[in-house]
Amino acid sequence: MLNIISIFLLLSGFFATLAKVQKKSKGSQYIAVFILGVSSIIISKNYVFLNEEVNQTLILLLVAALSVNFAIGEILKSKHNKLLLLFPLLTPLIFFFYPNLSQHSYLNFRIDSVNMLVLFALLGSCTPILINILQIGVNKLVNKLNITSYKETESNIVESALYYLFIGGVAALGNFLLGPISILIIATFLLSSSFFARQRLSISPHILLSASAALFLISAATILVQKSGFSSINMTNGEVIEGIFIAGFIVLIYELFSRLGQDSKGKKQIYLTCLAFVIPAITVVVVGFLYTQLERLGGMLSLTALLISLGLLSILYSSFKTESNLIGLKLTALGVTLLIMPIIMPVQQSSGIDLEGLGISPANEKSNSSSDELNYFQKLDIPNGQDLSLATGSWSINEEVSKVFFELGPKGGRTKGEFREVIGTFNIKDNAEESSIEVKMPVKKLTTFNSIRDADLINEPEFFESSKYPEVTFVSKSFTPKGDGYEVKGDFTMKGVTKEESFDLKLVGVGEVDGKKVSVFWGFSSIDRTAYNMEPSAKIGDIVDFHFEVQLEKK
What we know:
By secondary structure, the chain is an alpha+beta fold. It folds into two domains: 2-344, no CATH class; 356-554, Lipocalin (Beta Barrel), CATH 2.40.128.110. The chain has 13 helices and 15 strands. The longest helix is centred in the first third of the chain and has 32 residues, at 114-145.
């Protein structure tokens, strides 16, 4: 579904760009913004829940409301009767026919009140009328003050300012009273009302459509942030600032080639149209894929910031270019972002061992916050340890499911990775302090979820140099009780260097699967990679934090 939406958006973006270059966008922009709106609503479909299950009733209602208003608005666009402005004000009443909407949640925010939902829908529907009333008031004031320099451009600036104020206000108030669904609700009914406002109100249709599109892009960006695993966008992050300014770059490039195309004919016009479409699209792709080279460059945070900025810049743009718009660029940017998103999604480390499937019921786990203020270990769900005597005997590591997870790097730019193969044995004695462990990890089974970077890490002399040092090994020397687990010390060997290291180890539980006795151990620690003939780097990070889960089978 996501790929279909992406391709549809890209095709729509190209034809909207062509219409702009050929100066035929006056009518087609309504269709283009409608496509953007429906696509943004559909993107949200998996984030509306009822009783912990995805429920798409609200999404279907929003698509239906927008589609009905669009269809009727198109049919009656030649009619100037202002009573037709009342139709989008009646549409929000459909929510009252589904009272269980108050049980829904969106992005983990409970909707709670259908009345509040209807109120924000009405606010979106009324906004063009309210802006028009304010414009009339300002015009009367200007005439009274006899300000002769106040013309259409100045009037559009005032209108744009009012929409900026409106978006800022509803973003804060809506999130407080209704949650993030408020942006999507207001965007839907603001656009619904815009289909009836043309030729019936004195406000600029381009600015109105730009404001609607901006709200939809904000809503889509919110979904993309959540889908990518981020809790929010930090405006101080370099990749976020990057996205904001790249938005300005592609707006200017888009406008440059559009203008050149408008002054050309034939093949040259098509060529310039393609440049107006392709260069911003390629720019979005490059910004997204920069993440694959370094986590602090580009990626989804940059692209979501770009989409939001693009929406807001377009309102300002429309206030000066009243006969033009950026809807083609918005469709293109969102389409490309959705298309490359599965490839550039931030690293999500593999899930842990299925304890229930092994018949293991671990003690209560301590579930910690994922706040960026916490360090690597504070974010982990650390299980309580069980008595090691439950696992006496010789065990071999199940290489297929056991993994070592690691992170390194500065705050806000952590590189994540895994050793996907762990080989070795655990020998647990009745006297736990006499137990022993031998483990080795093939370097070629290391991954940081980026093939280009992995090749350097595995092969280059400043990193693992696997041709000379194919394995990382650990051989224990002592077990010392520590809390509900043990501190295990031993010889750690990497890149031909052996040093004593220690880690905390806990027995998670012992179970049975397919008639075989199994156990699961969990542990964590940190090492300084520069102590093992690796070059120090503040950018890459020197201290490697890691934790592991190993599943063992009784010999």
